[in-house]
TrEMBL record:
This is Ferredoxin. Residues 121-211 form the 2Fe-2S ferredoxin-type domain. Residues 12-76 form the J domain. GO terms for molecular function: 2 iron, 2 sulfur cluster binding; metal ion binding. InterPro entries: 2Fe-2S_ferredoxin-like_sf (IPR036010), 2Fe-2S_ferredoxin-type (IPR001041), 2Fe2S_fd_BS (IPR006058), 2Fe2S_Ferredoxin (IPR053441), Beta-grasp_dom_sf (IPR012675), DnaJ_domain (IPR001623), J_dom_sf (IPR036869). Its cofactor is [2Fe-2S] cluster. It comes from Halopelagius inordinatus. Keywords: 2Fe-2S, Electron transport, Iron, Iron-sulfur, Metal-binding, Transport. Residues 63-96 are annotated as: Disordered. Belongs to the 2Fe2S plant-type ferredoxin family.
Amino acid sequence: MILMTPSVNVDSPFDVLGIDSDADDAEIERAYRRRVKESHPDHGGSAREFQAVYEAYRQILDGYEGSESGEEDGSGRTVAKRENGAAEDESDESRVEYLNYEVLDDHGWELEDDDLFEKASESGLDPVDYGKILVEPGQSLLEAAEARGFAWPYACRGGACANCAVAVVEGEMEMSSNHILPAEMIEDGIRLSCLNAPITDEMKVVYNVKHLPNLDELKLPADRFERAHLND
């Protein structure tokens, strides 16, 4: 008896983003931002779905369907390959070293430790919890993390809650918009990653600090703004 193996229907990157294969760059970017929000674990998605969206986006940027670096793909776009999510011209980018606040208790670390990041770099942490990312001009810190496939916490993306807050340990981060953080927290280096970006070439941040004292009460349920839009 011959056993037939059923065929597996694998969605193309364009299917994952919900766009046609001839979509232009602006359509691709809008679709990616929409799918990132839909698939984010804080908004009813899953880490697996979020990663699939990120991988689809990277494949399209890298010239899906076998196009070579710098050549046109089937949609007529000129694509340039990127390595490890970084653009070829890094002159205006900021390099951000990040650490997940949730791992501090596991290792007996404190946010105020002078050698916090040195200890993190020697501990073999998962890339989700510790590593470095490049923030491109025009990107918020949250967008840069999502562009690397990381599902950092957020809720409103508008500066009205502390879900996306980070603690700046070294370097500087702009504070062009703030509707929620009290002055004392700003003085302590707390910033909102959804709106703001690094303004120094190098920066160290601890993300996922939403459970810190005085921040916990400024959080919002992740779906509150989704419900508000549906009721508009």
